[in-house]
Write a structure and sequence with these properties.
The complex is a heterodimer of chains A (485) and B (787). Chain A is α+β, with helices and mostly antiparallel strands. Chain A has helices at residues 26-33, 99-106, 116-129, 135-142, 153-161, 170-173, 175-185, 206-215, 228-233, 269-279, 281-287, 293-298, 301-306, 314-321, 417-423, 430-443, 454-473, and strands at residues 6-10, 13-17, 52-58, 65-71, 84-86, 191-194, 199-202, 220-222, 241-244, 254-256, 260-264, 324-329, 332-337, 342-344, 347-348, 354-362, 368-375, 386-395, 398-407, 414-415. Chain A has four domains: 6-89 and 174-244, Beta-grasp domain (Ubiquitin-like (UB roll)); 92-168, DNA polymerase, domain 1 (Orthogonal Bundle); 249-362, 2-Layer Sandwich (Uridine Diphospho-n-acetylenolpyruvylglucosamine Reductase, domain 3), CATH 3.30.465.10; 379-473, Enolase-like, domain 1. Chain B has 20 helices and 29 strands. In chain B, a hairpin with a 2-residue loop joins strand 21 (571-574) and strand 22. Classes of the chains: A alpha+beta (485), B alpha+beta (787).
Amino acid sequence: MTTSTVRFLLNNDVVTVENIDPNLTVLQYLREEQFKSGTKEGCSSGDCGACTVVVAELAKDSQTLDYKSINACISFVGSLHGKQLITVEHLKQGAKLHHVQQSMVDNHGSQCGFCTPGFVMSSFALHKQNSKPNRAEVLEALAGNLCRCTGYRSIIDAAIASSEHTEADSFAEHYQQTVQQLNEFKTLPSAALSNGRHQYFAPKTAKELADKLLQNPDATLVAGATDLALTVTQNLATIDDLVYLGDVAELKTISDNAEEFIIGSAVPYSEFTPMLHQEYHDLGEMIERIGSRQIRNNGTLGGNIGNASPIGDMPPALIALGAEITLQRGDQERKIALEDFFVDYKKTVLAPSEFIKNVYIPKSSANKVLKVYKISKRIDDDISAVLAAFNIELKDNIITSVRIAFGGMAGIPMRAKQCEGALLNKTFDGESVTAAQAALALDFTPMSDVRASDKYRLKVAQNLIQKCYLELQSKQIETRVVNYA
Amino acid sequence: MRSLINTKHSNENINQESTAVGQGGVGRSKKHESADKHVSGEALYIDDRPSLQGQLHAAAGQSTIAHGRIKSIDLSAVKAAEGVVAVITVEDVPGHTDIGPVFPGDPVLAMGQVDYIGQPIFAVAATSHDLARRAVKLAKIEYEELEAVLTVKDALAKQNFVRPPFTMQRGDSETAIEQAEHQLRGEISVGGQEHFYLEGQVSTAEPTEDGGMTVFSSSQHPSEVQKLVAEVLNIPLNKVIVDTRRMGGGFGGKETQAAPWACLAALLSNHTKRPVKFKLSRSDDMCMTGKRHPFENNYHVGFDSNGQIKGINIEVNGNCGYSPDLSDAIVDRAMFHSDNAYFLDQAKVTGNRCKLNTVSHTAYRGFGGPQGMMTIEMVMDDIARYLRKDPLEIRKINLYGKDDRNVTHYHQTVEHNKMAELISSLEQSSDYQARRESISQFNIENTILKKGIALTPVKFGISFTVQHLNQAGALVHIYTDGTIHLNHGGTEMGQGLFTKIAQIVAEEFQVDVDTVGVSATRTDKVPNTSPTAASSGTDLNGKAAQAAAKILKARLIAFACEKYNVGEAEVSFKNSQVLVGAETFSFAELVQQAYMGRVSLSSTGYYKTPKIHFDRATGKGRPFFYYSTGAAVSEVLIDTLTGEYKLLRADILHDVGHSLNPAIDIGQIEGAFIQGMGWLTTEELVWNDQGRLLSNNPATYKIPAISDTPSDFRVDLVPDDPNREQTIYNSKAVGEPPFMLGISVWSALKDAISSVSDYKLSPALDTPATPERVLWAVEAMKDSEQV
């Protein structure tokens, strides 16, 4: 292995980190190692956004920067390698507040102030990517930041009003230097960290990754860390051997052909969402409610699949679409249907030393419609009680093809095969809907938990069949609360 | 001789400052005194304070059962764990072991028995936060389990109470109900609420040279932390200093609930003679600290064919958790607010304080008032559906009158009542009637989505119902450069208290508010303070600070009169200047002259609320100095297939008297409304049948997020309506009252649900009204339609 270091820009300074525990989060690093206490700890689980910082990365062209808000509390320090980390301390220049900060002051957007640095950083990232955000874009960018004091109106106003300021900030002034520095970082060896007890390694190629996993099948794969980091911050576990997927070139690609999209398992949501949104409106809308912007800037499709949670939102939608995945072990690759990946609660067919490489998502076709419903207590950043996806082909109101999958209804994301059977080759009408609803009760015996009761899950799942039917019958009627304006 | 600061510079500023009336800024939308520091990350919270040399970090070992006797505790693995420096149990407490704030019942560490899951049994100091948290997991504790009481019904059946029941009564309600044209009964379960202050509980304790302790605590009640720390350490109060610069949110959750962690940090600090920080992790905070009381209430009402109440019996049953804490006063306040804005006529209100084996529930914005109001607002909706009338009509007909029908069930006369005008004004400005029409049309045209609208009022009594708490102190210094330093007993938790009080002091001297510096609330600056609670912060501390300023101003005037041989009427303060006869000095110049003339430039100020009294033995009196009022109209959209919903528009009209700072007041109103809506909608506390809190993190407990704020959100202050009582600049308290405006969202949801029955039925909708509860309520409408 090469030298055990991680190098990045902390604001404008090159920082080299070595000999630290790779389980250290960016938040702990900032507060405890760098004595920068502007970034706050609200929950240590990526749910409140008080710890929001911004990471600037080179875009594909190597000439422009992408600014991404992330949750420092559930990001490991190693993931900063080769990037620029921007913290709230860096926004103010001398006595002058950055315009996103000044706008918060002018609009009375802070009360207790504890969530404020996080909002400022989310707003900063938004304005770097979109200088004139509208209200909907502001909500999307700030949905991962909780405020308990203001009721948000003043914060929304502040974020919208920020776009009235047009003067260049210090980041614009240092843009070329930053680009140059990040390009220099590209020549660095693979990131590695060790404190003697715990190791971290970030391979740059699929071959490097495959070799590493053959050597060490017990290593823990980490992509966005948006779930894994909670085992450290909440369950107080330490992970001995972390292998980071975010630098593996082959896992970071997006491509397509006539039939399908091919998305690398380590591509974050925020990068592939626009493409999928364009193809499948409902899917895009749903993805914008998965976690928060901070989560989607780190979280990956491979992570959501590999995690094998029964309440992950992507697998049911992708199963309904008939997605496939490739798995690689050593130099062997196999391709399987996504629905065959999940075996039992948190169990998959992934073999030791194997990793998810690509996800193949079929493109839409003329007669098929994809309907996706995410049911949760709260619109923003909430785990689904039920996720339903219907992929239906209708010819003369006869259902000629149907794939229906649910999350939250069983120990794994699963197709509702008896329900599908009740619909296939039937006229889509009240009668077949009723039959499908009855069949659904045979497909699933959901459980009760903190989010919903078993009865509610089943009832909603059944009602969603009706909703899907009504939406396909008429495009005129209003059926969705979430999008209602 | 000491040379004084050159005041030339401030002279220049004065000239530039020109002529604005009310230089201090009372009545203007001054930004929060810490706004610039909030946005830049420079505002220091306790966890942000630089680590002291040798500082340790604390964690507490917790009970894993709801009720039982401790048979044995084996802490050997804890003591041997990496980083652990000290482990203490209740045996190691040198002084008091009970830290109950009003009544005993809260052991600082368990004393042979545990009463809820999460109760601290022992505490650890270790070299890091994570090492301390890991170490406490290693304890081996054996229990003899006892039967746990986990529901209000069970507690009522067993008469298991933390305090005795109490009744307020006016007239003969039984007869009045019986003789009324119509009778209805109903019951409702009202959920609790996690405070979810963004900054969790945290305290740092540093031992001092004389065996004392300096404690930095995120507390709404530093004086109580001081007292409890002194008591557990068995040292006098004058050896303990508690310092609170700001909290990252409080909402009542840091009134009594900050003290345990301060006490444990102090005990560990005393034990190790090293500074100790105790910061609760979010999930520990959610499991180990009290919440808003869940209530189970019921009513029996008699009313006439217009829907006017003739008599009512209301029973409110608060789930207090395992100990009294503040529950006596909280259930009292639920009882006091069982009328909300309505004349109950013949009324009996009974309150039970149920003891359950859960964490002890505590103060939360509204302090029982919201839970009390829910019953009567349910009554309004139920009567309306029964009589097939618009609920707004029923609400209006039941409002307190001006000259008659104006006595509450606790025999306070409602004075200066302008609720009818306020509602009428909001009804107009919100276009209620036209929207009611268009909603009816929408509901006819749409089968899946339904809309609902509701207007609900709030009348909230202002004053601590415990009389002695209605006092405050302040300390004002003037320095020889003309700057002013201000301290008072109130704490800053984001509500803008420090800003408002700085404005008040600046106004007295007619100087710019920026010349008034504020620093941390400290028990060695202003002693024996009341909690910053009950919406009273500005009323009490503003008056105390004003009193101190007036004393200083009087001294300056007397000095000027003597020195320049003018009458008092010839001395005036204006635009950061002092006019003395024909001469004009900058404020700083006069201050310097006064200093040279040996005038004391520091004063305390004191205030106590007049008029209030309440006799609990008879249930009669005037517990409240005045009432804060407001009303809200909410319009919602529900999905009858999933129970999902969205608040589409909210219109609020709220009375803050003569606003000290409209921007801050509107911020309070908006924030309180959304927090109130969260309480009644998505914020669901779930305990399992073992008494374990399942909704113990923000992934499972959902406070409102940004998209929950309505895109059309109109908030207005009642224009120019000074408080008729002599409050500070005739303003009105604003912290809690608007929280209950959120009830309009719940009532609007019921309106939408009721539309499924063509408004014939009043849906039963317990809170929080989660999508699941809304769906079941819709189903109940459909079922009864089919019958």
